[in-house]
Amino acid sequence: MKIPFSIFLSCLLLWAVGCSSSDDEAQIPKTPDAPADTTKYDNFQAFNSVFHNGSKQGNEVTVTLPANTDKYSRIFMYVQLRCPAGNCGDWDVYANIYVKDTETNTFLEIARYITPYGVDNAKRERGFKFDVTDFKSLLKGSTTLKSYIECWTADGWDLSVDFDYEQGLPDYKYYAVSPVIQVNRLSIEGIPYGTNATYNPKKNIAIPANALKTHLRTIITGWGHATPMASDGRPCAEWCFRTHNVQINGANTFQHNMSGIGCSSNPVSPQGGNWSPDRAGWCPGMEVPTRIDVWDNAGAGTTKEFKYVFQPWTNDGLASNPNAYYAISTMVVVKSNTPITKPVVTD
Fold first, then answer.
1. 39-170 placed in CATH 2.60.120.230
2. Which residue in 134, 158, 164, 238 is the catalytic one?
3. What is the pTM of this model?
4. For every one of its 347 residues, what pLDDT tens digit does the chain have, with 9 covering 90 and above?
5. Is the fold of 39-170 the same as that of 172-347?
6. Fold for domain 172-347?
């Protein structure tokens, strides 16, 4: 049968644009749009543009947070730094946020960061972000928070801190947290590294009988420019890459690798100083990593021996740069679906 040229041309055009001659043939499906994020948060302000400098390194505030955290799956904290009258502190300095445990009248470090050299952190939309869900048993009701920025001059930063409580079912209904070690008041009051004074903290941790999950939460930063340098020319402990061990009942169970975390790719840049080279596990103008070590077994009803073992190194004590330190805090967190008490930590 002879097909008229006009019909042939129409079919050719339809074929060229991908049309089918049969309605039964499968069509290439369109990629569906990504579902909109429907996560809901309840927001709470803590510090609001509170000035920190060399004469006012620390501040406290008491805030009202949700009395019941059962309906929240996670808690995020945001830290914003702004330059007062346009003048930020010149140096990258040690800084952290604590929450008060009213039962023991002690403050627990919930987050640590390092300030940028001479600028704010406005290039991070809401500032530095931290998951602080582990402290949900303390972040409720009337809560006292403490901030610290280790400024040494008249210039500094205006600090703002707020919380997002994410609505949703939590992984476990009840949490409890206890400090294992906290040698972290100042960067230069940490654990001396490489000297006879260096000690490997050892504790006993008694886990509640109804614990369903247990983990350790460690924040650690190295400070000082002591020698001898590593083979790559890095002094300790700010720059030297080391691997430290967490022992449970005498066995090396977790490792903390103190190596670079990508300082040169930090969005808080450029900064006023030497911000781009990698430090040992931290960067100027960035959150300090939180190291989460989950136990294979919750250890319910048992007592475990905890020991933090630093990689061996001997400081030669040269007068020009004599000291090296590690500022460290480790918490033990337990979770359950029934009310749970805190782990008991003893020497």
1. yes
2. 238
3. 0.88
4. 444 544 444 444 444 444 444 444 444 455 566 566 789 999 999 999 999 999 999 999 999 999 999 999 999 999 999 999 878 999 999 999 999 999 999 999 999 999 999 999 999 999 999 999 999 999 999 999 999 999 999 999 999 999 999 999 999 999 999 999 999 998 888 899 998 776 788 999 999 999 999 999 999 999 999 999 988 899 999 999 999 999 999 999 999 999 999 999 999 999 999 999 999 999 999 999 999 999 999 999 999 999 999 999 999 988 778 889 999 999 999 999 999 999 999 99
5. yes
6. Jelly Rolls (2.60.120)
Q: Which of 92, 134, 158, 287 is catalytic?
A: 92
DSSP string across 257-308: EE----GGG-SS-S-SSS-SS--SS--TTEEPPPEEEE-SS--TT-EEEEEE
Active site residue 150: yes
103 is catalytic: no
Residue 305's DSSP bridge partners are 204
Say which of 101, 109, 150, 162 is annotated catalytic: 150
Residue 57's identity, in one-letter code, is Q
Measure the CA dihedral 313/318/320/324, to 10°. Answer: 20
Is 238 catalytic? The answer is yes
Kindly list the domain boundaries of the chain, sorted by start residue. Answer: 39-170, 172-347
